Amino acid sequence: MKRIGILGGTFDPPHHGHLIMAEYARNDLDLDEVWFIPSHVPPHKQGAKVAGEDRLRMVQKAVESNPYFQASDVELTRKGTSYTVDTMKYLKDQFPENEFYFIIGGDMVEHLPQWHKIDELQNLVQFVGVKRSGYRWNPEIPVHFVEIPLIEISSSNIRERLFSGNSVRYLVPDSVYHFIKEHKLYGAES
């Protein structure tokens, strides 16, 4: 049996904050792997700014240097709204021997009671919350908390910086930075 961390998100683009979350959760929970799953259509926010294929390629580039990390196209392949419960049912069917840990940022913990089919989802995964300042913890849903260094990086800020012509170097892995520049994503110049 493998202990697999799942880090879902839009990854529009993936950044060092995502990688730090995954690495700290992996170490804290002694996970065998962490799978990064870009969403097709996230249920809780507007659609992604770039195509799913580009977001998947950026995630692949972001995780390529860590042997414990891998990118998965499960939600991009399935299409439709990316409800976590549907993804986890699929993964449990495909990998029944694995134990899954769903990693979420502290900003999402307080919204867990409103997640689609949360009662069913709680039976499929153990939630791992990465502590983030400014958010309260909801005791209604059992969550294992992981402490990480406070690093305020967001994909929306990165997109804004790129659109304004500002550098995002050191906010994203170099391989992601070069992919963004090469493909002129988010208004970036080559």
Compact description:
This is Probable nicotinate-nucleotide adenylyltransferase. The protein is an alpha/beta fold.
Can you lay out the helices and strands and say which pair or pack?
Layout: E1 3-9, H1 16-29, E2 33-38, H2 52-63, E3 69-71, H3 74-78, H4 84-94, E4 99-105, H5 106-109, H6 118-122, E5 126-130, E6 143-146, H7 155-163, H8 174-183
Parallel strand pairs: 1-2, 1-4, 2-3, 4-5, 5-6
Helix pairs in contact: 2-8
Report on the architecture of this protein.
The protein has helices at 16-29, 52-63, 74-78, 84-94, 106-109, 118-122, 155-163, 174-183; strands at residues 3-9, 33-38, 69-71, 99-105, 126-130, 143-146. The protein is an alpha/beta fold and 190 residues long. It has a single domain, classed as Rossmann fold, CATH 3.40.50. Strands 3-2-1-4-5-6 form a 6-stranded parallel beta sheet, sandwiched between helices. Helix 2 links the parallel strand 2 (33-38) and strand 3 (69-71). The protein starts with a strand and ends in a 7-residue tail after the last helix.
